[in-house]
Amino acid sequence: MDLITALTIFVLAVFVGIEIISKVPPTLHTPLMSGSNAISGITLVGALLAGGGFWAGFFGFLAIVFASLNVVGGFLVTHRMLAMFKKKK
Amino acid sequence: MIDNLFNMLLLAKQEPLVESETVAEVVDVATEAVSSFSADSWANLGYLAAAILFILGIKGMTHPRTAVRGNMLGAVGMLVAVLVVLLSGNVVSWPVAFVAMLAGSAGGVWLANTVQMTQMPQLVALFNGFGGIASVLVAGAELIKVSNPGVAGVAAGLTGLIGSVTFTGSLIAAGKLQELPQFKKPWSFGGQQFVSLGLLLLGLLLSWMMADGTGVEFVFLVLASLVLGAMLVLPIGGADMPVVIALLNSYSGLAAAAAGFVISNNVLIIAGSLVGASGLILTQIMCKAMNRSLANVLFAKFEASGPVADADDVYAGKIKSTSADEVAMLLEGGQRVIFVPGYGLAVAQAQHAVRELADLLEASGVTVEYAIHPVAGRMPGHMNVLLAEADVPYDQLKEMDEINPTFSQCDVAIVIGANDVVNPVANTDPTSPIAGMPILEVSEARTVIMIKRSLSPGFAGIPNPLFAADNCLMLFGDGKKVLVDIVAAFKEA
């Protein structure tokens, strides 16, 4: 993939992001933040592909640990929060 | 299905129905296209599916009814992306990957399930930091593999810069939110902005040099950026935390997107930029709620442009303090009561006590509502999460614009641990540091009860003339204890 393609994807995705989050009710500010934070753990994909050699493997290992903490913890805690909003009535 | 299509194309190629060169040519091209679908193309298709799930997920998260589903769609997207990698056969070491994922996931499950709702701001900050450092490590690991990185090197530099700032910034923010004594006071020194600016420029320069860089530049870059992250967050005080948390959230996404440039991976770029955009929007909402620009929050001190009124002059002899019994009596005679929660509510953990009082009031026919200022608390939506934990129905939580016109029809407004967000000076004194900040117009209520430990000023450091207003009664004490007392007094009466 060349730089321009990557840049195109990046810029378009930023626009998509801005468009889909037009109006967020304050109740959802925290869940949106922690849920989207979990998505930023996508770097896990990169972490899984890392490796080859001691240091690269070591960095990769740590990256996988941190990223999966971010992903699993983030989605779960968001779910817990949203369940709390739900349970009345 | 794709196999069928493939066979049909093959058949068509062998026995063309139409004797035509062009058809044969088209078929040729199509056959080639499908058969040339490499493992890479399949992986990218999988990433595309994940990216779509992320977009639908985040969109879902912006509406109360679809939020749970949105979060799940996001999680499924993540699962798809991870499965694609695992199946791609590009995982370097299975045992390492497996152990690391297990360890990280176990930690995540433990944190998500044990943390209390009042600790949510620091947990979100912590997860942010983890995401940031993971991206830095990914960039570092990739750099080791490549000898002459070129553009990928510059991207790795930017990943190191943004990711490291996110990491230390988030950890310090989490420390402040946890109220660790080391971070309690905003910390700064003269010329700090210039040091930060210098570090930022150094980071950018090193990123540029990474194009034909070795690992050495990267190490320096990461070290400089770690310091920069600390420098940026240390001077920031509690009331500005919502902005900082939202901004760091955005950074963690941008770091992932930059890492995507390093390893040429679409799904990292797309997911990262979605998060970056959503964080930026939240940041903007928070800034608007304080009527301050982002630059002002990050770099400027909270200072009055004119002389700050002396607290003694403002309060002199005009403060009326009250008791729990008196408040209970007032409440009994009321028809509409509005609670105004602030950060003090979170500190006193008084959300359950509020709920108990609200239940009693409702049982005796009083209408109860809650007025939520957008930057009340320490993270976007903090008060909503806190009150939800105490089972307060969310249709009773009113946004500022909705509730402000109705304060005049309110018998008693009870302000718990909020100060600057109800300070009328924001409307009356154009030289005040909070001038122009939208506030909750509690002074319009017939009676205002301020539950507060003392007359000490809020974050902005200015006295609040509301305390001295004719219709304002001060009820000094710890928020939770005072509320419990009111509940007891109300039951007796």
Helix content of chain B: 55-70%
Structural domain tally of chain B: 2
Please state how the strands of the largest beta sheet of chain B are arranged side by side. 3-2-1-4-5-6
Compute the average pLDDT of chain A: 89
- Poorly predicted ranges of chain A: none
| Strand-pairing-aware structural class of chain A | mainly alpha
Largest interface: A-B, 79 and 111 residues
DSSP helix fraction of chain A: over 70%
How much of the residues of chain A is beta strand, in percent?
Answer: under 5%
**Cα-to-Cα separation, first versus last residue of chain A:** 51 Å
Given the structure, what is the number of helices of chain B?
Answer: 20
Largest sheet of chain B: 6 strands, parallel
Order of helices and strands of chain B: HHHHHHHHHHHHHHEHHEHEHEHEEH
Number of helices of chain A: 4
The succession of helices and strands of chain A, N to C, reads HHHH
Question: Which structural class matches the secondary elements of chain B?
Answer: alpha/beta
Largest sheet of chain A: none
In words, what does this structure look like?
The complex is a heterodimer of chains A (89) and B (493). Chain A is built from four helices and no strands. With 89 residues, chain A is mainly alpha-helical. Chain A has a domain at 26-86. In chain A, helix 2 (29-39) packs antiparallel against helix 4 (54-86) and helix 3 (43-49) packs antiparallel against helix 4. The N and C termini of chain A lie far apart (51 Å). The model of chain A has no long low-confidence stretch (mean pLDDT 89). With 493 residues, chain B is of the alpha/beta class. Chain B contains 20 helices and six strands. A six-stranded parallel sheet of chain B has the order 3-2-1-4-5-6. In chain B, strand 4, helix 19 (425-428) and strand 5 (447-452) form a beta-alpha-beta unit. Chain B is elongated. In chain B, 50% of the residues are buried. Chains A and B meet through helix 1, helix 2, helix 3 and helix 4 of A and helix 3, helix 4, helix 5, helix 6 and helix 10 of B.
